[in-house]
Fold each of these.
Amino acid sequence: MEPRFRWPEGKQCAVVLSFDMDGECVPFVYDRPNARKRLTLLSEASFGPEVGMPRILRLLDQYQIPATFFIPGFTAERNTDVVKEIVKQGHEVGHHGYLHERPDMVTEEEEEKILIRGLEVLEGITGVRPRGYRSPAWELKYSSPALLKRYGFIYDSSLMGNDIPYRIRAGDGELLELPVQWLLDDWPWFGFQSVPPLGTGISDPAAVLSAWSWEFEGMYRENGCFVLTMHPFVSGRASRILLLERLIRFINGFPGVWWANCAQVADYCINNSVCSLQEFKNLD
Ligand SMILES: [Zn+2]
């Protein structure tokens, strides 16, 4: 039987570890009016780049896994050494807004300015122009793909319309989509705030390992692209680093897994024309 999706060298599936290093944007996401007053919240946010990141980079190095880090410009400016270290270790840096602005909450003009500012900051620090974009909170609007295309992005990773890469319309052209899903995000499992709106809670890492292992095994069968999204201020905590390591070891027990970052998957998909075009449904 033909595989559902053709991965390189006859691999069974792809596994992508992605990290949204929201860092010092987190207080603005949680509590914009009071962001600059809330020192404890800022300290929780800074835990990501300062303490979580060295742990994450160490783990990736140990298992020789290439990853993608989506970073808002505001956070990158405050953690230039971390951003440089990410690139030095061979990982990819992607665009994640400037101050973590959701495209659906700003005008098209604002969205373009934010896109330019984020590009300038990241390129200024790394010397490399980001080729991938993940929208803050995974929200896009209908005009966003065309804007991304215009600024030279080759892929987006914010939509949920499949569990293999697919092509989407982007103005007159197309963009590659590396789809995500809430099940494979650390936030719904571990996100917590002390004041409303509260997160859903602090889950048992064993339960999360179980859920992610089940999803991996299912997607392995389906020739899927297992894109895991983590936040260093969430998954950089000690027990969750252990969780990630156990997941890596579980996945490594399966033959034919392609560990790749977003850019590697995107390059492969584009160069080999393996993806289908998936149209957006018209709701009018
Ligand atoms: Zn984010």
Amino acid sequence: MFSLGMISQTVTVELGDRSYPIWIGRELLAHAGSLCVEQGLSGLCMIVSDSHVAPLYMAACKGALEGAGFAVETALVPAGEPSKSQQQLFALYDQALACGLDRKSIVVALGGGVIGDLAGYLAASYLRGIRFVQIPTSLLAMVDSSVGGKTGINLPQGKNLVGAFHQPEAVCADMDVLRTLPRREYVSGLAEVVKYGVIYDAEFFGFLEECADGLLACDLDVVSRVVARCCEIKAEVVRQDEREAGLRAILNFGHTLGHAIENAGGYGVYLHGEAVAMGMAYAAWVSVRETGLQEADARRIVRLLRRLELPVEMPACRWEDLQRAMTLDKKVSGGVPRFVLAETLGVVNVSCTVEERALRQVYETINESLREFHDGSE
Ligand SMILES: NC(=O)c1ccc[n+]([C@@H]2O[C@H](COP(=O)([O-])OP(=O)(O)OC[C@H]3O[C@@H](n4cnc5c(N)ncnc54)[C@H](O)[C@@H]3O)[C@@H](O)[C@H]2O)c1
């Protein structure tokens, strides 16, 4: 009997003739080829993966695509953020040419956000743009980076400085691959999950509180429901504002300080999600002061992050260094960092400018209040 694995939910990113499905479910990798054929894809494809993911999943992915009639080439880059580089990109162009990838061919990104961004940008730029499919293997890639069409590489001067909007043809999120994701990477991805509750959906936030134990234990039934809701929210935000003219900026909640912590702390010290968790705790505290978020709700945000084993206390970075990093961020306009702040759970305001004095004061006092709250009420 022909089976397409167990799709538990299909979320559609509605973008007119560039709309695409996100398939979410179990054992989907083995059926990635048939799913792609159903989506109208065929011909030659190049799977791009990294040195951690390829030994685990390249054979299954290649087999699934070949089994469905695709001619398959593979390309490998070292695992890790440094691979989002011009050097790796140009090596992939060489390989694509050597394999005979033409304008009808397809790039398949099999990996976390690094592979999705790099392979996506390869697809966006090679021969002025060819089609690509995302097979995200990290939690962060499933709930965030594989959806929405942002692709790109880093420059020595900074992250994501070269890129393009290029939507995939489909996203295939197989929950089973999360079993091999290192625990720290998995937990880090949960920060982005919490973010969706805060920025868009208070009910979902409540659901996350209820199922925090299952989430932490990586119960794949819980995880697949959670991934599906995150993708629905991201799909809706992208539908309304594909190129970040306004609404899409809500996705940056916790990221203004989070990016600065990643940067000033030295890349590699904190994972992205860990820095974002600290940034969200901070943004919640600033929100109480500036946008009227109830203190009880700010505490709920921090409590959930803690339950998910994410860091919330500010790191040992000097405010001046973070401040400098925030004003260098590419999303800063006119040298003033913009904060996404919460008004209530599920509702945020995207363009808050807050006086530097207030920002500093919250930064310098938040750890003490977080500790009191930890000792006193939990
Ligand atoms: N395009 C976007 O909209 C967007 C959004 C958020 C983040 N990003 C980008 O995403 C990147 C971070 O993504 P990430 O956190 O997935 O990092 P990553 O791709 O480096 O993956 C994290 C680590 O986990 C490994 N891995 C991934 N899946 C695995 C699996 N199933 N089993 C075993 N190991 C596995 C990887 O090899 C890597 O070592 C950053 O470059 C960031 O800029 C992009």
Amino acid sequence: MYKNHEFWKFFDNEAAAKLALREKTFRKIFEHLDLVEGPITIVETGCARLADNWAGDGQSTVMFDKYISSRDQESVCYTVDINPTSVSECKKLVSPRIHITQDDSVHYLNVLARQFSQAEKCISFLYLDSFDLDKTYWYPSAIHHLKELTAVMRFIDAKTLVVVDDCPLNGDFIPGTGTQISFLAPASVGGKGRLVAEYAAAAGARILFSDYQAGWTGF
Ligand SMILES: C[S@@+](CC[C@H](N)C(=O)[O-])C[C@H]1O[C@@H](n2cnc3c(N)ncnc32)[C@H](O)[C@@H]1O
């Protein structure tokens, strides 16, 4: 198990309180990564685009940078963003350990997958957070994230942690008595991860958490 004291000091003292509704699940992500042996490969879509936007977006790339830097010399993180402004802002926030590319994520992941194929690499942690979610018209974002998963599927194994951000749950419910509500069906993963979740369920992947972010292993 990796201790990563420097990272956890940073997480607990500087990040946790500001992460708001993502705190619990980011903690689970890094606890999971601490259990992975050897250097890790993180692949992210949608980079940190605004300094200090902890509660809004999550500052994922900043945390991934701190995490791999405190972990070892070999772990890597690749991130992609279609917006040149997001890319240039992100470059100001992270160290050269982060490989940042400006491209459409599905196209980029396909190119990256070819490189991984030659290097016989596998992804330890896939973090999908690109195409912004429109809560009233979630299809384009959810489809885009399913395409991203498809593009790198060959480089995901049973141990890979796959996480999608902005996945508020969907529930079919009616008012009950008083303040209670009656659910007609269990709540399900919504938002950006809705179609990834449908695929994960059909494929028999194991859901590790389902909160504002949803995470699976066992694809
Ligand atoms: C929610 S933000 C990412 C936030 C970041 N993960 C964080 O925690 O701070 C979404 C980003 O995805 C980018 N994006 C939108 N569509 C994209 C696409 N097709 N390919 C790559 N990036 C895309 C946007 O430019 C934006 O910077």
Amino acid sequence: MLIPALSDRISSEQKDYFMHHLALSGSIVVLTHQNPDGDAVGSSLAMRHFLHAIGKTDVTNIVPTSFPDFLAWMPGTEDIVLYESQPDWAAQKVREAELVICTDLAEAKRVAGLEDALASRTKPVLIIDHHLSAVCTEQPWQIAFPDCASASELVFRVVCEYVRHSSDAEALFARILTPEFATCIYTGMMTDTGNFSYNSCHPEMYTIIATLLTTGINKDAIYDKVFNAYSADRMRLIGYCLYHKMRLYPEYHTAVITLDRKEMYRFNAKSGDMEGIVNMPLQIKDVYYSVFLREDKIPPHQREQAGAAKVKVKMSFRSQGDRPVNSIARECFHGGGHMNAAGGEFFGAVGKAAEAFEQVMPKFFRRAETITNAQTTNSEVTNTK
Ligand SMILES: [Mn+2]
């Protein structure tokens, strides 16, 4: 099997570190971020399939919180340990494994209750990630490229570099490149680019995909399983959000959707059902910012931080073009992220979170240079009264 020719930015120190610790380690934990998405599950399971292919048998995949149903078909999910179901056992594994590999994850605070276990490790932790928070520090243990569209793509690249060091590289690559491995990598690349509709112009992405397709995987079937898998409840929830709950601020090109716990209960909303709703208002002409606020329970590890608040609000921010949303998330809502996709949180009810957002919006979101005739007329009428 021919190894694809890809540009290589992984330093020789990083490669040496990876090789060295893989060779030394028997027990390995593969960890990814909480509320795992297609790239989190894809990159971490691809890593599992790779480790098995090179003869590692003691591999444990742990997710901090459950993953959505539309990813449950992915090969290897049956072996994933959910921290929430076995917290003590999972934390012990994270503390004691000879090597922990974090994919699509660079921040200890994104592993829910596993934060302390991860922070207390004295044995090595290897990071393979593409989030901004993982800005490459050139540390040998941190393979981080924020301009890489998905962690899954990065895992594929790391695997290719690993293979190149083997004396019989092509035979080894053929052993690793199974349909299971390819499916996981493809799913992560597909979901983190919205089925190749953003962050998807790098020609090498398609070189990688061409290689994955040689295993016989059906990319159209993968799309169907992930994107055409809505429940009727989710479809109705989306309709409700767009019809009843979307508020527009034309002067800021902004749309805001809020959901409280009662509404989520009414639509039987499950983890993952809210996924992607934040992107929808951006399909409206002249809406460049979208904000989605939804209430959530306060997890045990945040009770102290929450104070008197009974609920917290998860805040998602999206934007188009050169309009940053990570600054508002970072400076006002304990969060952060990329320029066009960021997240934050607020302790309190969703109405309060919306008020807090409205107050700071003018400081962070760019005001329209020209407002429409209709709005001008309205404000003139108001002014003369
Ligand atoms: Mn990702």
